[in-house]
Amino acid sequence: DLPQSYWEYGLDNNLMPGNYKFEGVFDGDEFPSYFMFQDSVVDASEATFVNMGIILNGNVQISGLTMTASKYIDDQEFGMANGALVYVYADDNVLDGLNVQYAPDEGYDAYGIVFDQANNFQLLNSVIEFTGPNYGDYYEYAMKIDHCQGTNIVRGNKITANLPILAVDYSAGNPGLDTDRVLNTGIRDSSV
Questions:
Q1: What's this model's pTM, rounded to 2 decimal places?
Q2: Which H helix or E strand runs over 8?
Q3: Each residue of 17-32: pLDDT tens digit?
Q4: What distance in Å separates the CA atoms of residue 6 and residue 27, rounded to the nearest whole number?
Q5: CA–CA separation, 48 vs 160, rounded Å?
Q6: Residue 109: alpha-carbon gap to chain centroid
Q7: Which of 70, 99, 110, 184 is the most exposed place for a label (fewest CB within 10 A)?
Q8: How far, in Å, are 23, 82, 85, 174 from residue 136 at the CA level?
Q9: Residues near 7 by beta carbon (within 8 Å), at least 6 away in sequence
């Protein structure tokens, strides 16, 4: 469990490798906007993160986390999530039983979950609900899988996106993932 002062674990939001059990509500107004995990087992079956995201940096097993965000979550601490509520960028991560609801503000690129060069990942038995409000030149994806190799497994999930209709951006390279500003699921150069 996280102690009253969670700083005792890692001195910042980049938590030390280990086993964690989250219980209760963690609000982005009281905690940093993102927690980063590496080499950890995380039981979050009794936790809800409100207006805050997670970054998985390799060899993480996370289960049961509920996440709700009704605004854009800014990754000021790490500068890598690029609008993703769940950002996975290293190898051997397992996400099981997540319940993610993300409805970001207008004016930003936003993603429910991004796997970026995350080899050998598993996304299992999860629900991803994404609502994109932008009508401008921004990307909005419920899920993006980009340059992920190895044995990647996406099984037993429900991924829903409520997206505006936007013109295709042919200047972004055609054909290519970046030509579509809105997608339920976008996959590029990956084995899934």
A1: 0.90
A2: helix 7-10
A3: 889 999 999 998 888 8
A4: 13
A5: 20
A6: 13
A7: 70
A8: 38, 17, 20, 19
A9: none
